[in-house]
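Hi R.,

Here's the chain you asked about this morning:
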Amino acid sequence: MNELISKRWSPRAFSPDATISDSDLHAVLEAGRWAPSHGNSQPARFLVGVRGTPTFDAIFEVLTRGNKTWALRASVLLIGCVITADDRGHIPNVEFGLGLAMENMALQAVDLGLISHMMGGFDREAAHTAFAMPEDVRPLVAMALGRPGSVTDLPEDLQAREQRERKRHPLSETVFTGTWGQSLLG
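And the predicted structure, written out as tokens:
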């Protein structure tokens, strides 16, 4: 397995003083652009706010209270959205396309020495309104990007979560053959 995959995780301890260069931000966004999608429909769209800009502040405002405790230290906040139709009509599987784009972006961030954290905790309706999104656009996920910071800057409950061992279900519990639950790996 590629080391970028095992090194990717979702930290919350961002450096409040770090910035992301325009070239690094462009590389992360370009990685999202090259993600596979249903019929090459490319439904992923992104609202990007760099810390210190009104867009960053507007994205921050739609985050849930828990995410606000740490996301303010990120260098960049973005919202991943999908368009649901194009000139061919309804686009199927748009969530799949955005998910692949977000993972490409997260892996590119790792390659650049950046950290990222995806968030479902935000008010989608408020984001839709705040950014005057067209009716056929759906905001689905937010992401914080930046550089590693100090775990001690986080609230105590998040400090413990930040430092716990990362675990994944074993393949024997997630990969089946024949019938559901029959492990491919024995």
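Residues 94-111 form the longest helix (18 residues).

Let me know if you need anything else.
M.
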